[in-house]
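User: Hi! I'm working on a homework problem where we have to compare a predicted structure to a textbook description. Could you give me the structure for the chain below?
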Amino acid sequence: MTTAPESRSMSGCVIIGIGNPIKSDDGVGVEVVRYLEGRLPGDVELVEGSVYCADLFSFLEGRTKVIFIDAIDAGEEPGAVFRFSPEEVRQRKTGVSLSVHDFGPYELIAAARLMKQCPEDVTFVTVQVKNVEFGEELSEEVRAAIPRVHQLILEELGCQGEPSDTGEDETP
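Assistant: Happy to help. Predicted structure tokens:
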């Protein structure tokens, strides 16, 4: 899924799924990117990120839009889906990281902005975790949120229609 920076095409939009697929719900970002394959316009690049977001700098440079998909622990109902900008995070930041990663997407964006490599249009779509213990399966609540994440991404991209318009089964 992730292509080498020198061999990938430079589309205007990149969607980066962040997470650790062996820590249950923490892998939701990666699972969403896998689900999105073939369900988005062809000029959107999909990237399976990792838990160490510093490795993702090269995927931001030259883009007009980036959408991060990540797990969040905001104390809400498992499977709740949130969409926000980095500015909204900065306004509400209380000293406790919302991401479940050490060098997460918020730190990546701050660093990329300092280096003038960050797209102007940055959006986060996150899913409230239920379980981040070791395991490769998403909880039922988080898995059920994937079609909603798909819909929010279509809205962000300005696409018309519902996820079911693809004619494919919506159960991830």
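For your comparison, note the following. The first strand starts at residue 13 and ends at 17. Residues 13-166 form a domain with the Rossmann fold fold (CATH 3.40.50.1450). Good luck with the assignment!
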